[in-house]
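seq as requested:
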Amino acid sequence: MTDDLDRVRDHYRATGLTERLKAALAVLGPEEQRLKPEQLATLDQFHTRGLAATAELAKLAGVTAGMSVLDVGSGVGGPARFLAATYGCSVTGVDLSEPFVEAAIYLTGRTGQGGQVSFKAGSALALPLEDGGFDVVLLQHVAMNIADRPLLYREIRRMLKPGGKFATFDVVLNGGDPHYPVPWARTPAESFLLSATATCEAIEAAGFRMLVQQDDTADAKTWFAALRASGPPPSLNLGVVMGPGFADFAANLGRNLMEGRLGILTAVFEAVPIDS
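struct tokens:
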């Protein structure tokens, strides 16, 4: 398990990330200028369909004002900032990549949301938080990097209050071997895909009851087609975070979806009592 985590951590090493973000954000104004979360959406929503997917997942999970939300695999903090600004909830993000956490804290300072949003470095397999502290846990485009799914979903279950909601939006295996590299893995050694059925079964086995299951592959295909048709990306894009090769990674994800090798699963579960 340690070797798997080390390979994933290396994939998201992002050396010098905060300095790259500072330089890229100069197009929006001086360092002291307060930014709105939506201004960052093209570079801080590290998943298919971007901000729209986060908004839909939050709605399905029933996020409301005053809730405590955990974003597992929080990246540079885009979903956390969006949720706090939109719903008035408090959000904690946990990510394996220390450079991502540092960048998330910096960007949250730029949006003035430090009172509502916080970040910690840590593994999704050993979350650095107390039991039962959250109303909702979100997991967006993260599980593909994790081999030990039973432990992942048990950790998420541990985080939730009784009756709390777990909302996941992830890439799943449909059929055939994917083309690599993809955004979460340069090689199959960092990629641990399951089918939608196997994913839901693993989640339910960890102490959850399914409330919603959607196949969002068609919407993802439409989104990728629109991206291709729109021409060059804006200056603030995920290549700033992941480096100049990211466009090829994303193109391969789109190709895998179009060829039916991969799909997109959206699902929401309720935490239920675990048999002793």
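Strands lie at 68-72, 90-95, 117-121, 134-140, 160-173, 208-215, 262-271.
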